[in-house]
Amino acid sequence: MILIADSGSSKCAWKMIGRSGMASAFYTSGCNPFFRTTESIYEELSKDLLPYTTPQVEKIFFYGSGIINEEKAGIISAALYQLYPNAKIELYSDVLAASRSIFGTSKGIACILGTGSNVCLFDGKEVVTGISPLGFILGDEGSGAVLGKKLLGDYFKEVMPEILRKKFYEKYRLTRDEALQRVYRTEKPNHFLASFAPFLSEEISAEYSRNLINNSLIEFFERNVTRIPDYTSYPIGFVGSIAYYFREIVNEVCSNYKMNCISIQQEPMEGLVKYHQVSNI
């Protein structure tokens, strides 16, 4: 009996797999240790996950954004050990989740374009080259949080075309003071910013929207993908809602950079389940 978790900053997907291979799916809030404490993770999972799983869980494979070192991993593992004291718990980065889901045991460049963004070179076993995402203030190019940040900036500075500004106002009724409060004074500002990315999808026919997405993806490639040595010699794949909903533009940008995109997945969970079942890890 194993639990697999795929956690972004916004949500965490869980799959419980029994010996028969049957799987049950659950969802909780994201468990990014940069924005959550052990206490808050434990309190949430004790209500929203534990009652729906079994005490016989033997292994937990937790993949998540923000797991960059032992300190950050410890924030999550401490909560999980309280909930499942008899389980063997292994924690990995979200880029390894993307890599295993897209490539299995083959080589390639795995990219994440969701609330945050990330990229790595995977050798079929482990991440051999990674580019630090740096978060939505210093990096996270192409992510939902950065798209939302640019969108709000263009709205309040009146750079956005007037017809789109009117639609944006009608949809969100957001004031400048409310936006500043949510970004600088409350938890999960990246989640708040990323919540505006669907507006671009709804208005994808507008030149402004396509240009914003296209330029952000070019920025993602220039500042991340092209930093990997011999990047054009590897296949590339993506996971995440931004990559999935804007997959047409993602494919165009990949083509412009002479790269072979083999997969664009909304979530990596299906690939992770297959990986662990096939590898029996």
Give the ordered list of helices and strands: EEEHEHEHEEEHHHHHHHEHHEH
Helix content: 40-55%
Radius of gyration: 19 Å
Strand content: 15-25%
Q: Which architecture of one domain would the CATH scheme give at its second level?
A: 2-Layer Sandwich
**How many distinct beta strands?**
10
Q: What's the number of helices?
A: 13
Classify the secondary structure makeup into a structural class.
alpha/beta
Shape: globular
Task: Provide an overview of this structure.
A 5-stranded mixed β-sheet has the order 3-2-1-4-5, with helices on both faces. A 5-stranded mixed β-sheet has the order 8-7-6-9-10, with helices on both faces. The protein starts with a strand and ends with a helix. The model has no long low-confidence stretch (mean pLDDT 91). The chain has helices spanning 38-48, 70-83, 94-103, 135-138, 144-156, 162-172, 176-184, 189-194, 197-202, 207-223, 241-245, 247-256, 269-279, and strands at residues 2-7, 11-17, 23-29, 59-64, 88-93, 108-113, 117-122, 127-131, 236-239, 261-265. With 281 residues, it is α/β, with parallel strands linked by helices. It is globular. The protein has a domain at 2-97 and 269-279: ATPase, nucleotide binding domain (Nucleotidyltransferase, domain 5, 2-Layer Sandwich), CATH 3.30.420. Helix content is 45%, strand content 21%. Helix 3 (94-103) crosses helix 13 (269-279).
Protein traits:
five-stranded mixed beta sheet, alpha/beta, 45% helix, Nucleotidyltransferase, domain 5, 13 helices, 281 residues, 21% strand, 10 strands, globular
SSE order and pairing:
Elements: E1 2-7, E2 11-17, E3 23-29, H1 38-48, E4 59-64, H2 70-83, E5 88-93, H3 94-103, E6 108-113, E7 117-122, E8 127-131, H4 135-138, H5 144-156, H6 162-172, H7 176-184, H8 189-194, H9 197-202, H10 207-223, E9 236-239, H11 241-245, H12 247-256, E10 261-265, H13 269-279
Parallel strand pairs: 1-4, 4-5, 6-9, 9-10
Antiparallel strand pairs: 1-2, 2-3, 6-7, 7-8
Helix pairs in contact: 1-2, 3-13
